[in-house]
Amino acid sequence: MADVQTIRAGLQDIVVHKDLRVPMRDGVTLAADVYRGTENRPRPALVALSPYGKELQALALTTPPQRRPSPMWDGCIEAGDIARVVAEDYVHVIGDLRGSGDSEGEHIGNYNAGGVSLGQDAYDFIEWVAEQPWCDGNVGMIGISYFGSMQIFAAAERPPHLKAVFISGGHYDFYETTYHGGIMWFMPRAAREGRGGDSGWAFTDRTKSRMLETYSPEQIKQRVAERLKDPDVAAWPNLVHVLHYPKHHEAWFDIVMNELDGEWYEERNPINLARNIDIPVYLQIDQGRGWTVDGHIELFEVLKGPKRLDIGSYPPMQSRPWIEEHDKMFRWYDYWLKGIDNGIMDEPAVSVFVEGSREVFTAEEWPPKGIDHRPVYLRPRRKLSLEPEPMGAEHAAPDGFYQAPLTVTDKVEIIDWSTAPFEEPTEMIGTGAAHLFVEIDQPDTNLILRVWDEAPGGTRQLVTTGFLKASHRELDERSTEGNPYHPHTRAVPVEPGVIEEYVLRLYPFAATFLPGHRMVVELSNDEPLTDAHNALLPPDAFHLPVGRPVTHKIYRDAVHPSRLVLPFTRQAPPSAEDER
């Protein structure tokens, strides 16, 4: 029988039901903790589901919220402010997914990657919650990141008592979550294994690799050998370890072994599942984590029912325990779960915070203003200009940099270009592109581009980023001016010594460059582990470095017009001087 106790949290008493057993349709039971008010009456319930462990989420009652770069920040405490949920007269239900924490069952791979669908479990969990005496039959969901992704899995299954969801910082296109522009991102390793600012999954011995479940030992051996032919992978000790000892890193092994997009990722892609969602969905994301902003916009455009998109301000990482956005969340749930007409559905569907001007624009669609994609050209002497370079490469010789692998150096080479100070406020909202004409002396490299807003005096803030593995340079049919897409379904080695045009997707952003500020564009093939932006991210939130020495020549002349294509709003034409 579950333990029921009353605890004191701040100025209120909370009734806690510990270790309830929630039956799934296949006989497995999941573990759950329930937090509610002391009055013995039914209330709407908010469900939080993840493999991070319900006991870790309970720290929200005792640990003050931490912001990066605090060493006490733990990226897995994401289920929300328990005391606030109870104070707002909701029941907070925190469950362990199968194969994690105190729950039974096997968890195979990542998210829906084989075994019992996590969406199916979420359906059963939600319907069980709705039947309990402390729930009035109205159920929503709560939690960010993994908890947010679980809300999409749940809503796509259409449990009858799930009335609405509120998602902050979820991850949707899982290929783009783990391979930015085809470049492997290490953060999923941290979230699963517990590294660099994350406690990780509350693993049990019932979590398995889908790859190991699917292929024979001989097939796995052959596929591992093929993966180790990638010099980037072979040069990174952690990846060598994962590939040789996969049972110690089952979930991360699956990601490393699937470096191309395709069926393995698409069958569990929430963007695809979202087409089945018909309940109200509120999407909230803060600027600074471009691929996540991109995913929220893509999901918003797919949804057919009542929906909201709220793009908030920098910095990129919320507090842990997570406490932000609760005011917005309770307005949403008060309307959809309690029937309180608070006017939220009379407001525009899209709200966007603009960095720099610190204005908020609302509209019915993204972007919230009309835009024109306009070029900003790379020029000699490391300048950015609204006018293209008139001279050919024989006079406007290319820029360049050489990057040694990080096995032999600690220095990441970065080349930059910048505008003159802006004379008038210059506003940009939307996605962008970088067209770079590059010659390399190897079959592959990374292209990592970052756009900064630099204030007088040198302080700066990241505006947007773009990533592309050179062998993934192919574009697909969705691409338009300023809005490129890459299929990432095959790798095509580069012919050394040949100038190629690479088109990088610049993730969505909203920023106004104020008078006196400059736009600074940086290009590298690795990234610094610590700078003004990366210091705000968890320590493992960086990308796989290139494992071979590469010389890069960046052509930006009349024949090779390297440029950024940026989303200038029509109300604010560009005004930076062409010359420094």
Task: Tell me what the structure shows.
With 580 residues, this protein is of the alpha+beta class. The chain folds into two domains: 3-347, Alpha/Beta hydrolase fold, catalytic domain (Rossmann fold); 371-569, Galactose-binding domain-like (Jelly Rolls). Helix content is 20%, strand content 30%. It is built from 15 helices and 26 strands. The strands form six sheets. Strands 16, 17, 18, 20, 23, 25 and 26 form a seven-stranded antiparallel sheet that branches. A hairpin with a 3-residue loop joins strand 16 (371-379) and strand 17. It is globular. The termini are far apart. Mean pLDDT is 92; it is low at 576-580.
Query: How many separate domains make up the residues?
Result: 2
- CATH H-level name of the largest domain... which superfamily? Alpha/Beta hydrolase fold, catalytic domain
Mean pLDDT: 92
Strand content: 25-35%
Please report the distance between the alpha carbons of the first and last residues.
Answer: 74 Å
The unreliable regions are: 576-580
The CATH class of the largest domain is identified as Alpha Beta
Q: Main sheet, how many strands, which sense, barrel?
A: 7 strands, antiparallel
Structural class: alpha+beta
